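Render this sequence as a predicted structure.
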Amino acid sequence: MLRLPPYQYHRPTSLDAAVALMAEHGDDAMYVAGGTDVVPNMKHRLFEPGHLIALKSIDELKGIEEVPSSNVKEGVLRISAAETLTAVASHPRVRDLFPALADAAAHVAGPQLRNSGTIGGNVCLDTRCTYYNQTHFWREALGFCLKKDGDVCHVTRTGKKCVAAHSADTPPVLITLGAEAVLVGPNGRRAMPVADFFVADGIVNTRRSRDEILTEIRIPLASAACRQAYVKLRQRKSIDFPLLTVAVAADVDGSGLVRSIQGVVTGLGSRPRTLTKWNDVAEGRALDGELIDELAKGAHKQCHPLENIIVDPEWRRAMVPVFVKRALEQVTQE
């Protein structure tokens, strides 16, 4: 049986109190919301904080509502970070405005985990790798890895860069919708596009500092006019982390011609990947079979999975055009 290391549990009821606790305990503390990723990682001794600062009792981190915005004319849908994935997937306004996001949230793990896991936790999910997400005994036998306790990446066979995979379901959709992440920490509040939130570093793949709290996601209501799709490749149709996800958002005019289109994939590298040159290829054209094939072939050229997930990388790469086509075909059916 894998046991948790000893820790002290804190349950603040305000953001200020949570930030103060983090300042007090420093590197020996971690924030936790649903705990569906943090707790298993603690059992594997990937994280061993002496203090866990729980966020689910903070009212400021709850709620889903349409609100005005100073920099978005039409306003935004505000999704608070401690809302569960179940709440996001089933919320009427999320389903009506952003069905791809509701679909992505509904495909995370299984229902028990979605009832506890949060949208903020999914956005901040730690990267995963075959050589990292193992017990301490397993990792020690291999000599550990670059991401934790070692100095060599067993995927690339060098010690220069960790390539653990980004494996969260909702960020690709949020990127295609132009969403913004809001962070609060000891230096105040800041916001950034979700597209800029991630970096290509398997060890720490977000721009969130460890003492900051992701408080909310803000999605422009204007993005609801886009045709949206989300598809996911995994070994089983429940529980498993993605081997690949594809999110697409397309702005199509009344005559069926593409004004703009964006595709984002994840599960391949350390951050979500925006597929390039889609607008160059698609703008002013009908989203028909010829264009779908062209975009799918371009995605295949851009995507090169590594052996950071147990499934064969060449097979995963072969699935990229298949799932891009499925996502684009969903968009054409709207």
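Summary. DSSP finds 13 helices and twelve strands in the chain. The chain has a mean pLDDT of 95.
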